[in-house]
Each structure stands twice: as C-alpha cells, then as structure tokens.
Design a protein that fits this description.
This protein is mainly α and 160 residues long. The protein has seven helices and two strands, in the order αααββαααα. The protein has helices at residues 3-9, 23-35, 40-49, 83-95, 98-113, 123-139, 146-155; strands spanning 56-59, 70-73. The chain has a two-stranded antiparallel ribbon with strand order 1-2. The longest helix is centred in the C-terminal third of the chain and has 17 residues, at 123-139.
C-alpha cells in the first residue's frame, strides 16, 4: 500500500484525507471513522443537523495549584459557523452544486452530439479527441454502447 492509499484510508486516530475527485469514497470512510468514536451520535448530529445545545462538562480543579473546578461547553468542532455548514461546504466544493453538475452533463452531451473530425486533423488526433470525450461522458455517468460510439466516430470522419 502506498502512502496516498494509507492517507485515504485513515486510521483509528486520524480521519481519512480528502483527495480531489474522491469525495464519495472519502464520505463513506469518514462516516466509518466517526462511527468508531465514543461520541458518534453527537458528531453525527452536529454534521447533519447543525449546532446543538450540548450540556456543560465539569472540569475538575486542583485547589492545591489554585485551579478551581469549572464548567465548559462540550464541543465537537472548531469551525466558526457550525460543523453542518462546514460539512455542506466541503460537499459543495467537492461535488459541485446540482446546477453545475447539470451544466457539465449538458455540455458533455452537446460536445458528443456535435463531434466531427476537424479539417487537417490526423486520424490519431481525431481518435484521441473522441476518446477524451468518451472519458468525460463516463465521468459524468453518461453511458453509450460501443456500437453507438463506433458509428458516431466513423460517420464523423473527414471524407478523405
């Protein structure tokens, strides 16, 4: 296992690292990471519902050192707003908004439908460009059969 894989998986003490383009896998790994924590319900509630009114926690003092007993608010994050807003912001950054995703899908389909070999372009260049377009379709979960792709490619080559 290489170091990137180890970072992506995480450990009992460290959450998995989020790499661009791997949000869905990271989300599942992160949820598994917090499920192993003793305060799983509290963390999950903060991520899904936003700020919570947590009970105060008593921190024992030490009168000999001049530290009195005190109460502090229990917290699970240090984000200025709330853990839910942070969670939503991460998801939006990594997955894009629904509208942005629809625009990407529409652009891919439009480019596929309008694909034609360019004048002066070699067969290899045309094939590479078409292959990149097919990769974009696949990334956006748009499926075309091999037959459709072959017909599309062959019908849009230059006559010579």
């Amino acid at each position: 296992m290489n170091s990137r894989d180890a970072l992506a998986i995480g450990s009992d003490q460290k959450p998995p690292v989020l790499f661009r383009g791997e949000y869905p896998q990271w989300h599942d790994r992160f949820m598994n990471f917090i499920e192993a924590k003793s305060n799983y319900e509290d963390i999950y509630k903060c991520l899904t519902e936003g700020p919570q009114d947590w009970p105060m926690k008593v921190v024992p003092g030490n009168p000999a050192e001049g530290r009195p007993e005190r109460q502090i608010r229990k917290s699970v994050d240090s984000f200025k707003e709330s853990s839910k807003k942070m969670w939503d912001q991460i998801e939006k950054m990594m997955m894009g908004s629904h509208i942005n995703n629809q625009i990407k899908v529409t652009n891919c389909i439009t480019r596929y439908d309008g694909f034609k070999a360019r004048k002066g372009e070699t067969l290899t260049e045309t094939y590479e460009r078409f292959n990149m377009l097919l990769n974009d379709l696949q990334k956006n979960k748009i499926t075309k059969t091999n037959t459709e792709n072959n017909i599309k490619f062959m019908n849009n080559l230059q006559p010579e």
